[in-house]
Amino acid sequence: MKILMVNKFLYPNGGSETYIFKLGEYLALTGHEVQYFGMEHPDRVVGNTVNAYTSNMDFHNGSAIGKLLYPVKTIYSSDARKKIRKVLDDFQPDVCHLNNFNYQLTPSIILEIVKWRRQTGRCCKIIYTAHDYQLVCPNHMCHNPNTHENCEKCLQRSFLPCMQGKCIHGSTAKSMIGMMEAALWKLAGVYRHIDTIICCSQFMKTKLDTNPLFAEKTVAMHNFIDADRQPPARKKDYVLYFGRYSQEKGIATLLDVCRQLPEIHFVFAGSGPLEALLKEVPNIENVGFQKGEALRQLIREARFSVYPSEWYENCPFSVMESQIYGTPVLGADIGGIPELISPGITGELFESGNPEALRAQIISMWAHYSDYDCSSIAYQSVKAYADNLMNYYQCNS
Q1: In this model, does residue 372 exceed pLDDT 70?
Q2: Within this chain, do residues 357 and 334 fall inside the same structural domain, yes or no?
Q3: Beta strands in 169-291, from DSSP E residues, in sequence order
């Protein structure tokens, strides 16, 4: 089978890139042909045989002249249509597997895939993995960064609340563009051409299903985890947080609780805008961003890890990875997190944003960490995940 992976970034940048690289690598190893389409970038690590990519769009560091054209290019891209057509004509894919495409590639690529499919008579499925809430929320998080509140206003009616709340980078202009982009493609009905929408949590599925069109297409499939189970490690006396140091991750709430528990040692591994605040809490050891074996050891030796998020998390890899390495998780009861934790067995849940509830659970798990057992955890391997995907890739499905 020929599979075209579509994602705006074709270099390591985040979770969606890890997803397409690992999935594409496995599919190629099992005999499928896999090529990639997205933006050109000096760090690009995958591609296609005709070397057709859109020009790089950097919203933060681009040239002044380039930025003047961004409002138009983020809504519709003739360049993306021309470039993906070259790939389609050359590669002749059986499946176009879309990932993050809004703003840099734009939904206009879907129109070109449909046009190519119609002109050639080929049966080419269009599959979309939703890594966020972009199809129903212009800022993709269902979270207003200005009020620090979760928001579902755009799920209920028009996308106007996005502009009213300055939900994209705190800017009225950028939020207006996001609103226009979402409204245009919803009105045009372009998403009706997607055959299947893969949601990485049941929670995400319920949010996308607020649009009746999507409700007919969504399926919930937790992400696969590319990590081998390891033998239990001897636990050390610390609680671990690893990830981004930012408001929506619940860091401010966690720091308040850490101050109240000076007898407990906390290790933070990561980076982010709130990093300076960690220095104000004496029982926090900030080891910075970690990866590979260093991170695995930190996870395995922690009494437990804490995931205090305050936005609608989807299927956080941090929770899955912690449990695979034998470490229970104290997670906020928000988004897709509860789907990953069995209270009393693989961890505990607490009310998101509630410092008293978080404090009580940390005290309890600190004393009883040895009572938890993550050996029953059985997340999908990339093989099992890919086998499941084939049910949606096939043209007769």
Answers
A1: yes
A2: yes
A3: 196-199, 218-220, 239-244, 266-271, 284-286
| 263: containing domain | 239-371
Buried b (16+ CB within 10 A) or exposed e, 175-212: bbbbbbbbbebbeeebbeebbbbbbbbebbbebbbebe
> Is the Cβ–Cβ distance between 74 and 179 less than 8 Å?
no
Q: What is the pLDDT of residues 342-369, one digit of tens each?
A: 999 999 999 999 999 999 999 999 999 9
Within this chain, do residues 360 and 388 fall inside the same structural domain, yes or no?
A: no
Residues 6 or more apart in contact with residue 287 via CB below 8 angstroms: 267, 268, 269, 298
DSSP for 260-294, please give it: H-TTS-EEEEEE-TTGGGGGG-TTEEE--S--HHH
DSSP bridge partners of 196:
127
Q: Is 232 inside any structural domain?
A: no
Write down the pTM of the prediction: 0.91
Residues 205 and 254 in one domain: no
How far, in Å, CA of 338 to CA of 350, rounded?
Answer: 10
DSSP string, 330-370: EEESSTTGGGG--BTTTEEEE-TT-HHHHHHHHHHHHHHGG
Q: Would 141 be classed as within a structural domain?
A: yes
- 108, 45: one domain: yes
Q: How many domains does the chain have?
A: 2
Nearest Cα residue to 40 out of 96, 87, 90, 95: 87
Spatial CB neighbours of 368, under 8 Å, sequence gap ≥ 6: none
Task: Indicate which CATH number applies to the domain containing 366.
Answer: 3.40.50.2000
Same domain, 143 and 264: no
